[in-house]
Specification:
The protein is mainly α. The chain has one domain (2-245). It has ten helices and no strands. Helix 4 packs antiparallel against helix 5 and helix 4 (52-64) crosses helix 8. The chain is elongated and about 60 Å long.
Amino acid sequence: MLRLLLLAPVAVLVAGLFGDLYDVFLRAFEDYGYLIVFLPILGECAGLPLPGETVLLAGGVAAQKGVLSLPWVIAVAAAAAIVGDNIGYLVGRRGGRPLILRYGRLLRVRDKQIAVLDSYFRRHGAKTVFFGRWVIFLRVWASLFSGASRMPWKRFLFWNALGGILWAATMSSLAYGFAQSVAFIGDVFGIVGWTTAILVAILVAVFIWRLEHRAERRAELALVEDEIKEERRLIAERRERHRRDR
C-alpha cells in the first residue's frame, strides 16, 4: 500500500507528458486518418502502454478543425476499444489464467488470492468493466483481469461495449467542444485518471486484505478454491497426456 502512495507524484508527472503529443497526432491524422485513431486505442485496450485516451482527445480536436469527422472518430474509437478489450479478455482467459495456476506459487500468488479475484469479478465485474473505461489503470487491465477471473464472456461483452461506446462519444465530443483547451483537458483527465486509479488500487488492496482474513469463514471462497484446484488438476493431466503422446 505504501508503494502505491509513493507512485502518486510519479503518475502525475507522467500524465503531464501526454499534453505534448497532440500536435504530433494532428499531423499524423492528416497523413493516415482514422488508422491513427484505431491502432493506439486498440493496443491500449489490449494491454499495451499506449496513450489511447490522448489519441481520442486529439481525434476530437482534429474533427473540430475539419481534418476528421466526429461521428467516424466515435465509431472507430468505440470499435477499437471493444476489439482491443476482447483481445485482452482472451489473453487473460487463455493465457493469464493457466500461467497463474501453473506458476502462481513461484510468484507467491496463493489460491486464496486467486479466489478473491474470482469472487470480486463475480460480484462487481460489470461495474468494473463499465466504469473502468474512464480510469487509466482499469482501462488497460480490466479486460485482462476479467478474462483471468473467468467472467462470463457475454456479460463482459455487453458492459464492455456499452462503456466503450459511451467513452468514445463523451471524450471525443468533449475535445470537439473545447478544442482550444484540449491540452488542459488531457492533463486534467490524466491527473484525475491516475489519482482515481491509485485510489482504486488502494481500495482493492484493502478489500483483498479484509476478504483474505475472513476467507476461512466464507463458503463462497472455499468453493472457488476447490474449483481452482480442480482446474489445476485438469491442466496437469493435459500436460501429462501431451508428454506421453510425444
